[in-house]
Amino acid sequence: MIAALTFQVVSALAVAQAPAVHQHAPAAVPPELLERALPLREGRGAVHERVSTASPAAQAFYDQGLAYLHSYVWIEAARSFHEALRLDPRLARER
């Protein structure tokens, strides 16, 4: 379920940001790639968006996912969001 949710979020973002001339069906991220361990990496930018979690690690992986999205690194973004949801399945964006 987490993998499906992660895929839907990243796919929607990818389609929304793609120019109308070059719309393609989003490629699926293989489940085995989503499940592979992912480290928190330095140097990805200072992107932060508060989410409803008590887990600092889940917040950090969510922020890393945003940084990857801003860099158009879709697969690493999906993996980061997947890890955030794995750490806190109830994680949600705050309004």
Structural class of the helix and strand makeup? mainly alpha
How big a fraction of the residues is strand? Answer: under 5%
Number of helices: 4
Total beta-strand segments: 0
Secondary-structure element string: HHHH
Low-confidence stretches: none
Mean pLDDT: 80
Count of spatially separate domains: 1
Looking at the structure, what is the overall shape?
A: globular
How many strands, what sense, and barrel or not for the largest sheet? Answer: none
Descriptive report:
The protein has 95 residues and is an all-alpha fold. It has helices at residues 2-17, 31-35, 56-70, 74-87. The protein has one domain (1-20, 48-95). Helix content is 53%, strand content 0%. Helix 1 (2-17) packs antiparallel against helix 4 (74-87). 27% of the residues are buried. The mean pLDDT is 80.
Topology record:
Blueprint: H1 2-17, H2 31-35, H3 56-70, H4 74-87
Helix pairs in contact: 1-4, 3-4
Short description:
The chain is built from four helices and no strands. The chain is mainly α and 95 residues long. The protein has one domain (1-20, 48-95).
Keywords:
95 residues, mainly alpha, globular
